[in-house]
Design a protein that fits this description.
alpha/beta, 6 strands, single chain, about 100 residues, 3 helices
Length: about 100
């Protein structure tokens, strides 16, 4: 909805194996193990990106997304989350980028 309202495109970042075509992937640490996320790497070079996620807790998924985008050469203009859980370190982990939160607990 945010991309539609802004007249922009969407590039989904998903758990490994959920995307329909070959994708870039990155492994990242969770508090209980590791996980892999993937995205399509077909944006125009130097496309500015806004990362939007539902929940920010420890920050692992958002940080991995930011790292993957930067590795691919896409500048991140900011990060937005619907819900942030305080006290789990997520905000500190992604502090290199502006972070906008709708709800915090």
């Amino acid at each position: 909805a945010a991309a539609y309202a802004a007249g922009k495109g969407v590039v989904p970042v998903r758990k490994a194996g959920k995307l329909p075509q070959p994708a870039m992937s990155i492994d990242y640490s969770l508090e209980y193990g590791t996980a892999t996320i993937e995205m399509h790497a077909d944006l125009e070079p130097a496309t500015r990106v806004l990362v939007i996620d539902d929940v920010l807790a420890t920050g692992g998924t958002v940080k991995a997304t930011l790292d993957m985008l930067e590795h691919l050469g896409y500048p991140v203009c900011g990060t937005a989350v619907l819900f942030e859980i305080d006290g789990l370190g997520g905000r500190d982990r992604v502090s290199d980028h502006p972070l906008h939160t709708v709800f915090r607990s």
